[in-house]
Amino acid sequence: MSKLNQEVLKLLSKQDFLSGQKMATELGISRTAVWKAVKSLREEGYTVESVTNKGYKLVAASSELNETLLTSMVKDSSLFSEVIYKDSVDSTQKLAFGKITDIKEPFIVVAGEQTEGRGRFNREWASPEKRGLYMSAVFKPDIYLNEIIKFNLFISLAIANAIEKSFNLDAGIKWPNDIYINGRKVCGFLTEVISENNMIQSIICGIGLNLYHTEDISKLETATSIEDELKLDDKKDLDMESFLKQLIIDLEKQYDQFINMPFSSIREEWISKSIIFGKEMRISEMNRTFMAKPVDITDEGFLLAVDRYGETHKIISADIEF
């Protein structure tokens, strides 16, 4: 049905009013099939007007994530081969891991909700139904394992840029995997790999973005959503189609740069979007926690931080908090 939905949506996007019979003839299907496709599009959040003797008219695109929209986005992608959409899953990461051997090219998994969403360090990531973007993007590089540190930097820039271009909001990066707006977290991503002999075969990048306001967000002073930052009166004002297009474009661009260019090629841009430099932060590594101010980042992606005693630390993997 998703393919038929796309075809009907494509026809509606080109016309003012279009009769069910004309669509049925052009697509080689019955008028009943057209009616069912229109009904399905409405259920996915599209506003389709119907007028006797005139036909159907697309009034507004969907503000919700849905299979038709996602499949259409990936169809035009130069990187991702397909998208798997589920109304509900335990975790998009788990589903993505289970499909890696079956799907040879890069692909995307998206869910309407997650019942066991998780972030870095196995923390819970609240994923209520139709309130956020819950997505795992699978990449298939052939790179050394230590390159994964730089991957996070390129991807964080892609997400921040997509948010800024789509919603005109200033998005800042908190090293290594968080995106903030106005000092509050709006997005986090989790990077996991499948490797052999020190070489990475697959990168599974789980992205969790707060799109709409929830009770959980209202309880946390450190969290926010796109809806909250835009101060929308109606969630339909959020242009989901434009955002998804932009996100895929930026993921493709930054991934291509990651594969073909050094981190130094984006270092200054990344630093300009960072929100951590010059601020004292709690840095928690595997065996210690200390206070220090991040002051720079190396071309290898390591964070340099100076503690209260003037000692400089090279941070490879850690949790940092304001």
From TrEMBL:
SUPFAM superfamilies: Class II aaRS and biotin synthetases, Winged helix' DNA-binding domain. It catalyses: biotin + L-lysyl-[protein] + ATP = N(6)-biotinyl-L-lysyl-[protein] + AMP + diphosphate + H(+). Biotin binds at residues 114, 118-120, 185. Coiled coil: none annotated. Belongs to the biotin--protein ligase family. Its EC number is 6.3.4.15. InterPro entries: aa-tRNA-synth_II/BPL/LPL (IPR045864), Bifunct_BirA (IPR030855), Biotin_CoA_COase_ligase (IPR004408), BPL_LPL_catalytic (IPR004143), HTH_11 (IPR013196), WH-like_DNA-bd_sf (IPR036388), WH_DNA-bd_sf (IPR036390). Keywords: ATP-binding, Biotin, DNA-binding, Ligase, Nucleotide-binding, Repressor, Transcription, Transcription regulation. Residues 20-39 bind DNA. This is Bifunctional ligase/repressor BirA. GO terms for cellular component: cytoplasm. GO terms for biological process: protein lipoylation; regulation of DNA-templated transcription. GO terms for molecular function: ATP binding; biotin--[biotin carboxyl-carrier protein] ligase activity; DNA binding; transferase activity. It holds the Pfam family BPL_LplA_LipB. Acts both as a biotin--[acetyl-CoA-carboxylase] ligase and a repressor. Residues 63-259 form the BPL/LPL catalytic domain.
